[in-house]
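Long-time lurker. I teach an intro course on protein structure, and each term I like to show students one example going from raw sequence to a predicted 3D structure in C-alpha cell notation. This year I'd like something fresh instead of my usual example. Would anyone be willing to generate the C-alpha cells for the chain below so I can use it in lecture? Attribution to the forum is fine with me.
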Amino acid sequence: MTCCCSRKGRLACGLTTGVVLLITGLIIMCVGNKLVKDVVKKEALLINGTMAFDNWAEASNDFYEQFFFFTVVNYLEFTEDHATPYLKQMGPYTYRIKYLPKTKITFDNNILSYIQHNEATFIPELSQGPEDDVITTLNIAAVIAPVVLKGIIPNSIISIFYKRFGVELFQKRTVRELLWGYEDHILKHFNLPDPTIGLFYPYNGTTNGGMSIYTGEKDLNNVGVINKWAGKKSITYWNDTYCDMINGTEGTSFPPFVKKYQTLYFFSSDICRSIFAKYHSTKFIKKIRAFSFVVPEESMAAAQTYPDNYCFCKNSEAFLKNCTKAGVLDLTPCKGVPMFMSLPHFLFADEEYRRDVEGMHPNFEEHKTHLDIEPLSGITISYAKRLQINLRLQPFTDIKLLDLPKDILFPIVWLNETATISEEDAKMLNDIMNTPLTIITFLEFILMILGALIILLTLCLYIFYPDPKDDMEDKLVNGHHRNSIPM
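-- Reply from a regular --
Happy to contribute to a lecture. Here you go:
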C-alpha cells in the first residue's frame, strides 16, 4: 500500500477517487432519473390503481366558489339623472362545490368517460354575510326581455307592460335568489317555458353534460386531453372551426413533464370556449414545487391586437365593444342572453369599461386566473378560476324604461372558484414522485460536487505545495531502481 504514500501516489489516488465519485454521480443521475420518469409514466396514466386516477376520481379536495356581488349605491340617481353608476362590492358568499363523486365512470379503448354532478352548499363560516343579504342590481328580466323576445313580441308591447305594472330598472334581490333563481313575473307574463331566472339557474342536480378524456395509455402526451364534451368533439357556438375547437384538458391535470415554455390549453364550459395559460412563476404548495400558469392578457385581447380572437366576436350591431375593445367576451351566442364575461373588475380590459361605472379596482394578484401544476406528474395541485358576469344595458328608444343615453356593460357578480390538493394527496404525491427525485438529485449533486472538489484539491496540493521529503523519496526510489541489478 505504498502507492498513496508518495507524492505522485497521492495524486493518483486523489484523482482516481474524484473520478469515481463523478462517474457514480453521473450514473445515479442517468439511472435514477430514468427510474423516476418510469414511475411518472406509470402513475400519470388515468387508469385504475394509479396516483393520477385516484387523485382525479376522489372528491377529497376542497373546491370552493366565492361570489362577490356589486350592489348599486346610487341607483336612483342613475334612473333619474343617468348618473354614472357607483358599485360597491359585497361578499364573499362562499359555497362548497364538486364534492360529489364522479359517476358513470367507464373505460373504452384509451378513453375515460364520466359525469360530474353539480351541487353547491353554502358555507356561512367562510362568508361575509348570509344568503339572505339583499343586493341592489339590474332587473335582469327587464334588461334581457327585449333581446329574448325579439321578433316574437314588439318592443312597444313590452314598453306598455313595463309601464302598466310599474317595472323598474333596478331590483332588490337576495344572494340566494340571484344565484340560484327566482320566479320572475315579467317572464311569467310573456308565457316563457320557465319563468325562473338566476345567474346560475339551474345548477343543483345538474351535471357537466358528460365528459370523455384520454387516459394516456396509447400516447402519454394525451393524458387528460378532452375527447368529447356533452357527446361532441367540438362546440357550435361560434360557427368557426378554430373557435369551436375543444382544446386541451379540463384543467385538473395535464400531460406529465410540463415545461415552463409550454402554453397549456384547457376547456371551460363557463365561458363556452377553450382558453390558454402561460408560465408565470414557481412556488411551493404543501412542500410541492409547482409551476404557476396564468391566463394572460392576450387570451381576452381584441382581435385587432390578437387576431386568433377574431371569431369570438359575433355581434354585428352598433355595440361592438367586445370586438374593438379588449378584455370582454360576448357569451350571447352561447347563453342566449346579452351576457358578457370578463376578468374581475375588468382586469386586462379596455379602460372604457371601467369609466362607464365607478367602483372597479382591478388587481392582478387578486383577480387573475391561474393553475399551479406539479411539473413531473402534470397534476394541478391548486387553482383559482376568476370570472365576472356583466349584463349589457342596451338602449331601446321604443321602450321608455330602457331609453338610455348609451350602452353600458354592467358588472353583476364575480366568482372565485378555488381548490387546493388535500394533505393526504400531497403526501402521496411527495412520497411517490417528489421525495425519490429529491433524494436522487441530492445524491448525484453531492457525489459530483465532492468528486470535483477532490480532483481540484488534489491538483492544487500537487502543484502548489510540493513536499521535499516526497521528492527525496522519489529520487531514492528512482535511484534504487537504476542501481538495481536485474536477476
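Some talking points for your students: The chain is about 30% helix and 25% strand. Residues 46 and 215 are 5 Å apart (CA to CA).
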